[in-house]
Design brief:
By secondary structure, the chain is of the alpha/beta class. The chain has two domains: about 5-100 and about 295-310, NAD(P)-binding Rossmann-like Domain (Rossmann fold, 3-Layer(aba) Sandwich); about 100-285, Rossmann fold (3-Layer(aba) Sandwich). About 35% of the residues lie in helices and about 15% in strands. The protein is built from 13 helices and twelve strands. The protein has helices at about 15-20, 35-45, 60-65, 85-90, 100-115, 120-125, 155-170, 185-190, 195-205, 225-230, 245-255, 275-280, 295-310, and strands at about 5, 25, 50, 70-75, 90-95, 150-155, 175, 190-195, 205-210, 235, 260-265, 280-285. The strands form two sheets. The chain has a seven-stranded parallel β-sheet, sandwiched between helices. The chain has a five-stranded parallel β-sheet with strand order 2-1-3-4-5. Strand 6, helix 7 and strand 7 form a beta-alpha-beta unit. Helix 1 runs parallel beside helix 13, helix 5 (about 100-115) packs across helix 7 and helix 7 packs across helix 8 (about 185-190). The longest helix is centred in the C-terminal third of the chain and has 19 residues, at about 295-310. It starts with a strand and ends in a 20-residue tail after the last helix. Bound molecules: 2-keto-D-gluconic acid. 2-keto-D-gluconic acid binds next to loops. InterPro entries: D-isomer_2-hydroxyacid_DH, D-isomer_2_OHA_DH_cat_dom, D-isomer_DH_CS1, D-isomer_DH_NAD-bd, NAD(P)-bd_dom_sf. This is D-glycerate dehydrogenase. Keywords: Oxidoreductase. Belongs to the D-isomer specific 2-hydroxyacid dehydrogenase family.
Amino acid sequence: MSTAVLATRATFADVLDRLREHFVVEHNPTDAVWSPAELIRRLQGKHGVMSTGSERFDAAVLDACPQLRAVCNVGVGYNNIDVEACSARGVIVTNTPDVLTETTADFGFALMMATARRITESERAVRRGEWTRTGIHDHFAGSDVHGATLGILGMGRIGQAIARRGSAGFGMRVIYHNRTRLAPALEAAAGASYVDKATLLRQADHLVLVLPYTPASHHAIGAAELALMKQSATLTNIARGGIVDDAALAAALRAGTIAAAGLDVFEGEPAIHPALLDLPNVVITPHIGSATLRTRRAMAALAADNLVAALGRGPDAGHPPTPVNPGVERR
Ligand code: 8YV
């Protein structure tokens, strides 16, 4: 019996060709996200899936698709996948780390700078014909990035890459908080010092969130945390929407508790809390942290490699390059 796989979103033609060398492939040619019922329908008879962060793989989906053996996410984050439920059913889970680290760090830095220097807000004003409306002191005067204190919450690969940009490139003092402290050599390479979370919130001029979304990190930044931050501080979130309480953030921005926010991810995206859309001091982007052509191509290629290895029959069968649940006995 031939092996069948599903690609849930539009992807690169050469990646589909590679999959077709090994599998019977069904793919979504568009970027439209399938409903859970449609996903289950499409997964019938499929042994593997190349997924994105927009589809949820939980026990109900897995039980409705008993032949599914591999979920290969195009993305480093995998909060859309119930890994425990997958492991319990012998379903291999993979993600795409490393290939997107520097690209996503570039974006995090760019979003933080756009927020600090009010780039999109001022562009909107220019387009409205308001160039000369304000005085020299309030003419889109933002806050400095160079020499400021950069705070990073979540110090994995992307956090460390952002830290390097801040310390080596912009002369920033870099502080971080993470579940576990980095080894001294990694701290030195990042040019970053470990602090507790409250110190991070109190001292950061620019706080960047790069932590994974888990039940423990849900609303890690809410009203209480925002209240600890400097009034002049900016907050940048390139991690996941649920990490920030968007209603509390909108209230804090309106009240001047912090100065501005740069948001690439939102609770319930693509929907965005309406209060955030109304605020001038929020830079909004549509979850594009890893979106360069080269990196998106590398992510898709790695997901395809994972799928081929996870479902393959050769000596590497069941041992994909970047597993999330290594050692799981494939069903
Ligand atoms: C992806 C991401 O675009 O890697 C991640 O975790 O958030 C993004 O790079 C997203 O997962 C869609 O697949």
